[in-house]
Amino acid sequence: MAAKTEQTSELQKKSLDAAVQLAQLSIENTQRVIEIQVAVAKSLFEDSVNNAKALSGIKDPQEALQLRSRFAQNTAEKVFAGAREIAEVATKAQSEVGKLVGESLTASSAEVLGAIQKLFTGLPIADQGTLNAIQSSLNTTRTAVEQMTKASSEAFQAFTQVKVPATTGKSRK
Q: pLDDT value at position 171?
């Protein structure tokens, strides 16, 4: 019985370690996203102040319209660049989480199956078919996580590669 308790304790320790790694990864990526947002907000604020100063000295309405259009385009470009940078952080985080979860599932599935085999040893229900079904379930779960991770990473990568057409600053008719 002591061996089973040690196995359970070891599995719990590994699960806790994986949870701590996921939490650390989440904190680091959240900090990076916040840094990006603050940098974009600061830049947009500074631009707004400069834009207001520039507009206050303009007398020609046509020139003011062109200046506002240029300012709006610059703002849109900065916002989209920030969104793209955040998407890149998310893509990297998704990949790292997927890798961590995949490694954890791969290692855990073998350990869980070993623990289950030891648990069933000597019991009248020590059926190889049951163990095969459990192994199959663990493998299916691991494969599903790997596929979801791959699909999510591809979707984020596609987003970060989207090109936004530049506006011309001309009014639409």
A: 42
Q: For residue 9, is it within any domain?
A: no
Tell me the one-letter amino acid at 154: E
Give dist(CA 116, CA 120) in Å, integer: 6
Q: What pLDDT is attached to residue 120?
A: 60
Each residue of 108-150: pLDDT tens digit? 666 666 666 666 666 665 567 766 776 777 678 767 767 776 7
- From the number of C-beta atoms within 10 Å of its C-beta (0-12, 13-18, 19+), residue 113 rates as middle
Q: Work out the number of other CB atoms within 10 angstroms of the CB of residue 146.
A: 16
Boundaries of domain holding 73: 20-160
What sections of the chain are H helices per DSSP? 2-56, 61-120, 128-160
Q: Is residue 167 part of a domain?
A: no
Predicted confidence (pLDDT) per residue in 16-28, tens digit: 888 888 889 889 9
Is residue 31 in some structural domain?
Answer: yes
Q: What is the SS3 assignment for 1?
A: coil
**Number of domains making up the chain:** 1
Q: ∠42-46-49 over CA atoms, to 5°?
A: 140
* Residue 165 belongs to some domain of the structure: no
